[in-house]
Amino acid sequence: xxxxxxxxxxxxxxxxxxxxxETAPPDTASADPHTxxxxxxxxxxxxxxxxxxxxxxxxxxxxRANAHLQTAGATSPAETYNAIRQALLALSDRHSFLQPAxxxxxxxxxxxxxxxxxxxxxxxxxxxxxVHVPTFSPLVSGANSTALADTLxxxxxxxxxxxxxxxxxxxxxxxxxxxxxxxxxxxxxxxxDDRVGAFVDADSIVTTWFYxxxxxxxxxxxxxxxxxxxxxxxxxxxxxxxxxxAILTDSLTASSGxxxxxxxxxxxxxxxFGGATAGVPTANASFPLPDGATLFLMxxxxxxxxxxxYSQRIPxxxxxxxxxxxxxxxxxVTAAKNWLRxxxxxxxx
Length: 349
Known about the structure:
Layout: E1 20-21, H1 33-51, H2 60-70, H3 81-89, E2 97-99, H4 104-113, E3 120-124, E4 128-132, H5 138-141, H6 145-160, E5 166-170, H7 179-185, H8 187-190, E6 193-201, E7 206-212, E8 215-219, E9 225-230, E10 245-249, H9 256-264, E11 270-274, E12 282-288, E13 294-303, E14 309-310, E15 318-319, H10 331-340
Parallel strand pairs: 1-12, 4-5, 5-10, 10-11, 11-15
Antiparallel strand pairs: 2-13, 3-4, 6-7, 6-13, 7-8, 8-9, 12-13, 13-14
């Protein structure tokens, strides 16, 4: 659990480096083809039954029986994929999925289908620091976790030299990926804190998220600290620590993007603006299967610093409908700036 990564919500998702990886089921290649295929199917369903967050809601005997009916003539693992996907639907968590073994063609297709937004930061109206935190998947972007965290902090440093009085963190269109470099990157705005959020598993075991001096990661129930991402240079500290912060969200803010939203929730100095998020503020773990496919199961909910759990769309504190692609001068940004002007740290004119 302390190495769980958040996932990019899309038709085909790429595994990020911080995701928990479980031991593969035993290889059944020595069995006859149909027996091996059914054993493969059963092993995937057993993983769902024992590890998925909502496992206790499902009638697994019925799910397994239906899956066997669908695969009566199966002679290969691939011929059980549809039955496995159907079984996953019984969990109703919107974040569990089966990823076939990757191929170079598939990777090219994903890279084309999921463009990674550029990193941007600027000073708005001469007083408001603005940083956009994009979707991040190392396999698509060609970058690594440290590079993303470094770049975000460098952009924040650059804007901070102009002495902004407050900050806007834009996670609109952030479809997820690896949450840890995102969290480390916005750390100067969030501030050092041993409880910026948490994962809560099906047994109510809490694993806390932290940000501290350029590092982000988790703290287990026993107090063990695990760093998941860290800047390669000394962490930046804002000239005005603990500033007022406006968080911008929309319906494409998903998974790890939602984790960043959760990290700021509960702060008296923070408020969110825009649309409700995608509705998958949850964590996945990866389970490799013998043929190279991977089963991703939702194993935990996100929780904020106050202990509130999230499993559905997260509404903005100030809902604002926007029908166009986000810009730095749209209605959501305008509302955020108007609120920040009331916080006492910024001039009123």
